[in-house]
Structures are given as structure tokens and as C-alpha cells.
Amino acid sequence: MAPLLSALVLLLAATAAVLAKSASKIAGGVPSSEHEFPYQISLQLDGRHFCGGSLISDRFVLTAGHCTGALLSGLTVEVVAGEHDFSAPSEHAQRRVVDEFWVHEDYVVGMVAPNDVAVLRVDRPYELNEFVGLVQLPGKNVLHDGTCVISGWGSVSFNAYPIYPDVLQKAYLPIMDQEQCVKIWEGGPVADSNVCAGTVEGGTGVCSGDSGGPLVMEGPEHKEQVGIVSWGGVPCGGPNNPGVFVRVSYFIDWIEDKLARKD
């Protein structure tokens, strides 16, 4: 029996009051090294992290469609690059605000559903350096296999009560066979445009606050984004509870169309 599917569980708990702080582990992961993930983005509302993202151009960020609720409400969202530890803000962090954004036309905002992808454009370019850099996009419809790394400031708790870390966390997850994932989430919205990562045994996984963040395959030449954190079940990292991600390669044409809109 699959864990309870909670609508937008990865986001809703992240926007609730923070119950505790920790430098501990992301649901089975470990703290990352400083600036290990220069493409990692923190989306913030009133100075508080609520979603992740990835830098794919000096002015464009890839994230989940369900992370755009504040923008749809007309609120100002800060897009922070180069951060590592919220308790000791980095002098290398760069802050921008969203000046335009696009949510996939086939995504129903506010739902656990396929096509959960969005592109944000910031008001001015980031300065790319060793602390702020880009992740590479995959080729169209590439199907990845192997182990990927996830990164984020999501809850480190294994239960329904979130505990958010100050330090950016990381964990390694194997890509799960698609048929196996569909079977585990029987009745859930796992589509061909999704990719799943995790194990049947559990122990490691994404959690609230990780939404919109990147699932990345690390190679000797570059780091390529495989997925975008979309949804999962409760408890985070539990058995039969793989994370469900947007498959980036499925949406390359759509993403590149937005990257062309620089003005």
C-alpha cells in the first residue's frame, strides 16, 4: 500500500510555521559542502524559504508549477542564488526578484498533477562565478538511468511535522523503474512526463520545502538536470514512497521557448 498522498505535501508544510531548526539531514541525506551546488536557488517570501529551483540561464530559473502560488497572488518573490546556510548569510549570495513567469498551460495550479513545471525570469542577470552557476539541461526526451543527487532546504523530518535545516542538504537517489513507480502510486498522477527516484526500502527522499528543486545527474564533464521535485507522500523517505519529479527532458521545447523571452 503506497503512503498517503497528500496534495502538494512538499509545499504546504514548507509554508507553515517552522517548528524547529536543524543542521541535521534532509530525510536521509547529509549537509552539502559550501557552494557545492552553485545552480541551487532558494525562492523566498518575506525572507523565508518556501521552494527550490535551479539556475538554467543568467536570468532564468526552473522550478515547479505549484511553487508559483505567491506569484499568481501578486506577491513579490525573491530568487536567491549562492546561498548555503540561512543562519549565516553568504556574502556571495545574489538576490533578485521575479519580473515574469510562465506555468505550463496543461498544469492545474494547486493540484498534484503532471506538467508541474514553471520558468521564472528575474529582473536582472546574475553574475556567474564559482558561487553562482548554471546546471545543464538535457537533450529532448532523454531517458536517464542511474543515481542522481538532490539538493534543498526541505524538511529533515521523517514524520508529518517538518523540521527545516539552515544548511543546504543533499542526498543520492537512484532513478526508479517507471512501471514500478506507477504500480506503487497506483491511482496517483504519475505520467510519462514524470520520473521517479528512490528505493522501495526508503530511508532517503525529498520532503516539504524541496519542491521545485533539482534532481541532477553528475558527470565528469557537466551536471545535467534530470528532474524537478514535484510531489511525494507522507512520511518523507518512507518505504514505498519514491519522490515524483517532472522529467525535464520531456519539456525541453517548452523551456527553450521561455528562455528566448529575455524582454
From TrEMBL:
Pfam families: Trypsin (PF00089). It comes from Culex quinquefasciatus (Southern house mosquito). Gene3D superfamilies: Trypsin-like serine proteases. The keyword Isomerase does not apply. Belongs to the peptidase S1 family. CLIP subfamily. Residues 1-20 form the signal peptide. It is an enzyme of class 3 (hydrolase). GO terms for biological process: digestion; protein processing. It is found in: Secreted. One of its GO terms (molecular function) is serine-type endopeptidase activity. Its main location: secreted. Residues 26-260 form the Peptidase S1 domain. InterPro entries: Peptidase_S1_PA, Peptidase_S1_PA_chymotrypsin, Peptidase_S1A, Trypsin_dom, TRYPSIN_HIS, TRYPSIN_SER. Keywords: Digestion, Disulfide bond, Hydrolase, Protease, Secreted, Serine protease, Signal, Zymogen. It catalyses: Preferential cleavage: Arg-|-Xaa, Lys-|-Xaa. SMART domains: Tryp_SPc (SM00020). GO terms for cellular component: extracellular region. Its EC number is 3.4.21.10. This is Acrosin.
